[in-house]
Amino acid sequence: MKSILENRPALAKQVDEIAEVAGYLWQKGWAERNGGNITVNITGMIDDEIRQMPAISKKTPIGKTLPNLKGCYFYCKGTNKRMRDLARRPMENGSVIRICDDCASYEIIADQAVKPTSELPAHLSMHDYLISNGSGYKAAIHTHPIDLVAMTHNPAFLKKDVLSHLLWSMIPETKAFCPKGLGIVPYKLPSSIELADATLEQLKEYDVVMWEKHGVCSVSENVMEAFDMIDTLSKSAQIYLTAKSMGFEPDGMTDEQMKEMTVAFNLPK
Ligand code: 2HA
Ligand code: ZN
User: Does 130 map to a domain?
Assistant: First the structure.
């Protein structure tokens, strides 16, 4: 069977990058079994031949109407598929979908009828928003980092921006590479529309959103940047936890040091 990636170097490179990141998520220990999902808006790489391709699945409701996604195409990790398998065989563990003209359903077009991620409503809602605000962002990742999820089990860290400031203060790079910090969504049922809507609300302010006692979501121009933000935050969480496990509360950078860095790196306050 011919793959949609054949003779399409840009699309093949994009899928390679997704597979590379899927491998990192597994190696990090953030992607047990089928945990986590990746979606990328690939509409910009779609040619007329792909537009004519017949669907290989039934039209399936998304669960929401997303007006900005009309005619858009996405690579989506498959539901119940493993990141570690996707890393080696991305077109067997994910698929390319097209959003139908009603903006409320999708169909799979390639390579195989692999049903997209259970978190599709959240992912597509995020992409819809990212188009509407002209961000140019194309990638969304959801994953289960042990350290960051553990921190959401402490109610003190769930108050607005408490965790952002704590993680920023562990090492200068964290604010530099994750300047908006991270938003918090109180616990909601996985895969639910409520989770999708609450995530969307946080995206207005943040590029990274924690789902209490579940995982993290991040959005960026590309899948590597989306991964890097979570990785940077997780590094800070590791430093915090390592200090705590050595029996002391880490000092954190002082307010002056944070201020100096914010000015020097031209970061938002
Ligand atoms: O895809 O992580 O939140 C499995 C999940 C659901
Ligand atoms: Zn999850």
Answer: no
pLDDT at 36 > cutoff 90: yes
* CATH number of residue 109's parent domain: 3.40.225.10
Spell out the residues 6+ positions from residue 237 whose beta carbon is closer than 8 angstroms to its own: 145, 147, 148, 150, 151, 167, 170
Q: Which domain holds residue 21?
A: 1-118
Cα dihedral sign for 10, 16, 18, 24? negative
Q: Does the beta carbon of 213 sit less than 6 angstroms from any atom of ligand 1?
A: no
| Pair (260, 162) in one structural domain | yes
Pocket test for ligand 1, best of 117, 146, 193 (most atoms within 8 A of CB): 117
Contacts with 55 (C-beta within 8 Å, 6 or more apart), sequence order: 98, 107, 108, 109
Q: Are residues 167 and 68 in the same domain?
A: no
- Residue linked to tokens 């986590």: 36
Has residue 199 been placed in a domain? yes
pLDDT value for 269: 78
Catalytic residue among 32, 49, 119, 194: 119
On the question of pLDDT at 53 being above 90, the answer is yes
Q: Check residue 120 and give its pLDDT.
A: 97
E-assigned strand segments in 63-162? 73-77, 94-99, 105-110, 139-143
Q: What is the mean pLDDT of residues 24-38?
A: 98
* Structural domains in the chain (count): 2
Q: What is the pLDDT of residues 169-200, one digit of tens each?
A: 999 999 999 999 999 999 999 999 999 999 99
Look up residue 198 and give its DSSP letter: H
Contact 131, 103 (CB under 8 A): no
